[in-house]
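Lecture notes, continued. The same structure-token format from the folding unit now serves as the input rather than the output. Read the line below as a description of shape only.
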């Protein structure tokens, strides 16, 4: 199988990171006029935005380069590809900030997220009163929400100002708008599922996952690369399918890691999905087994890490872990078919990029 694209090309990583840093440096400079607290918010966000694998921006530029081959380096849209890729990473961070507020998380990538950092940085020691949030937590979550709003605005600015013809600009903006709408719809359904407002059947959970993760993480980068490279628009349906298969596989793998993996490795709060009542494919399968009544009772009563560890053991014993692993394999098989057998054909170089992204899942197995 092709080498994982996320491990390739350190020059590309440096170029994307430099573009992201430039935006936050410029933002901090502007923020200085609005007082030290606002400036500190920008500086804190800048310290948290990088550190991930840059999957989305690297996919964007790698797909662009694959579509153009030797012409890519000198193509007039190559600088735009870097800027738009960086904007997609900023968009990703905006979603993470809002997601952390929604989920009540204070950890990300094995360390305090922006909310956790702001709480520690501005600790007042005052307790909550009358059922309200503590001032520290309210301050921190407010900062995350507002910074997320600013980053969403920035993504639109970058897409709208891309140095491309009007037809390409509209394609780019349409792709961005579609990705944001589907991500928000997916998040909305995710919360509805967690609170029992939507029936937690497998089809609904898979649809939510595709909207929340696949569209902006994989479909959007492939659409941006196709538009910038001037590639055959008839290829887009195949790339949309490829993005969906990749997104489902990656999210289900994250669900496995969060439920069965080591918190020190996946970087999230231990058992966070179980504590928050996340309705994942793991839980959807468990609901269909004879073990569910006892799992449901144990989950409702769980309060300690030991309790949640017992729930994960029961989920594993009922076959949920094996079932989801098989589903991941099915998504990867479907990805191979759409990447290699579509009409019009996905160019071989782009096939290598897409399948290389799928190969990186092998290193994320629990």
């Amino acid at each position: 199988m092709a080498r994982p694209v996320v491990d390739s090309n350190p020059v590309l990583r440096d170029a994307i990171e430099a573009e992201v840093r430039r935006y936050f440096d410029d933002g901090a400079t502007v923020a200085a006029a609005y007082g030290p607290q606002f400036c500190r918010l920008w500086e804190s966000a800048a310290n948290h935005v990088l550190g991930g694998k840059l999957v989305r921006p690297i996919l964007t530029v790698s797909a662009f380069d694959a579509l153009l081959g030797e012409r890519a380096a000198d193509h007039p849209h190559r600088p735009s590809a870097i800027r738009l890729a960086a904007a997609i990473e900023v968009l990703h961070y905006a979603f993470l900030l809002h997601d952390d507020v929604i989920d009540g998380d204070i950890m990300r990538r094995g360390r305090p997220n922006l909310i956790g950092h702001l709480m520690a940085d501005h600790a007042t020691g005052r307790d909550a009163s009358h059922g309200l949030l503590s001032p520290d937590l309210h301050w921190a979550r407010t900062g995350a929400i507002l910074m997320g709003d600013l980053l969403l605005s920035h993504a639109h600015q970058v897409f709208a100002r891309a140095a491309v013809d009007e037809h390409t600009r509209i394609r780019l903006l349409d792709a961005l708008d579609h990705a944001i709408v589907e991500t928000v719809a997916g998040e909305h359904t995710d919360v509805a599922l967690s609170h029992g407002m939507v029936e937690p059947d497998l089809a609904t959970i898979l649809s939510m996952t595709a909207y929340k993760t696949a569209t902006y993480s994989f479909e959007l980068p492939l659409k941006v690369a196709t538009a910038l490279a001037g590639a055959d628009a008839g290829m887009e349906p195949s790339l949309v399918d490829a993005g969906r298969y990749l997104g489902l596989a990656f999210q289900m793998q994250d669900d496995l890691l969060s439920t069965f993996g080591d918190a020190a490795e996946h970087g999230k709060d231990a058992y966070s999905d179980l504590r928050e009542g996340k309705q994942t494919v793991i839980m959807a399968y468990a609901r269909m087994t004879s073990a569910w009544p006892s799992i449901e009772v144990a989950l409702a009563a769980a309060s300690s890490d030991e309790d949640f560890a017992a729930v994960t053991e029961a989920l594993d014993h009922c076959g949920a872990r094996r079932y989801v692993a098989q589903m991941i394999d099915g998504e990867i098989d479907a990805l191979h078919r759409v990447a290699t057998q579509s009409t019009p054909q996905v160019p071989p170089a782009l096939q290598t990029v897409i399948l290389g992204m799928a190969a990186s899942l092998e290193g994320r197995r629990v």
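Point for the exam: DSSP finds 16 helices and two strands in the chain.
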